[in-house]
Task: inverse folding
């Protein structure tokens, strides 16, 4: 089974509009010939439509960083429904990022509802899982990630799973400059794939992309991508500059 890699840039709460547009256009020209992997960038909500328009027809897809648990257009001040994202040209949505779990109290149950909302709208979901440093030190890393997968992906059919991408992001590696070693990442990716095989069958496990995230840089991407179960990366800090993100995309 060959899985086409996905390299996605998570811009988090960075950039004003002019900077977002110029970075996106610079990236567009730097990666124009890339076919070996899929590419996405995730700007803030208010820049999504502009970037979707400016990148239309290119090989860079647009991802949102979040969506509502609710699908019905209704009284939910401050929320954005998944079909509103799809409507303006968004292809992917990042769900359950550790910063949302930590700072905005997102639970596995909410993650599950958001995934279902995203899929119902025709989006692909990049579902983030990962343990904290203390959970790793206490030897609970597999238990924690296993639980996030179990409850996060609960009730999803084999069909649904075709539009799910998992991102393993150890919380201790995010924004810290401390990347998981390729071995550490591979060990967890293998666990995730086995877990998917048990819950959704071998075929789903073999075809699901599992990205690594956490201090991915031009210097460490190649070694990570050589691992058999690492199918791409979710990149934060190093995706903010077009040149460093392009180097990551061109890891080969
Ligand atoms: P980082 O962030 O690359 O800055 O560590 C990754 C992420 O949070 O998705």
Result:
């Amino acid at each position: 089974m060959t899985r086409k890699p996905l390299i996605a840039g998570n811009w988090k709460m960075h950039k004003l509009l002019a900077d977002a547009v110029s970075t996106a256009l610079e990236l567009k020209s730097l990666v124009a010939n890339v076919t070996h992997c899929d590419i996405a960038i995730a700007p803030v909500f208010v820049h999504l439509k502009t970037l979707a328009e400016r990148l239309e027809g290119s090989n860079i897809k647009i991802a949102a960083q979040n969506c509502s648990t609710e699908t019905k257009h209704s009284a939910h001040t401050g929320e954005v429904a998944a079909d509103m994202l799809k409507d303006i040209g968004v292809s992917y949505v990042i769900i359950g990022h550790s910063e949302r779990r930590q700072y905005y109290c997102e639970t596995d149950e909410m993650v599950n509802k958001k995934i279902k909302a995203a899929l119902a709208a025709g989006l692909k979901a990049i579902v983030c899982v990962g343990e904290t440093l203390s959970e790793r030190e206490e030897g609970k890393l597999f238990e924690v990630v296993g639980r996030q997968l179990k409850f996060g992906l609960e009730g999803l059919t084999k069909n649904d799973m075709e539009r799910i991408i998992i991102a393993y992001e150890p919380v201790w590696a995010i924004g810290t400059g401390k990347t998981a070693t390729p071995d550490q990442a591979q060990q967890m990716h293998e666990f995730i794939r086995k877990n998917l095989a048990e819950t959704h069958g071998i075929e789903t496990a073999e075809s699901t992309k599992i990205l690594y995230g956490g201090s991915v840089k031009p210097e460490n991407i190649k070694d990570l991508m050589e691992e058999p179960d690492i199918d791409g990366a979710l990149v934060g800090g190093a995706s903010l500059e077009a040149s460093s993100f392009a180097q990551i995309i061109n890891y080969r």
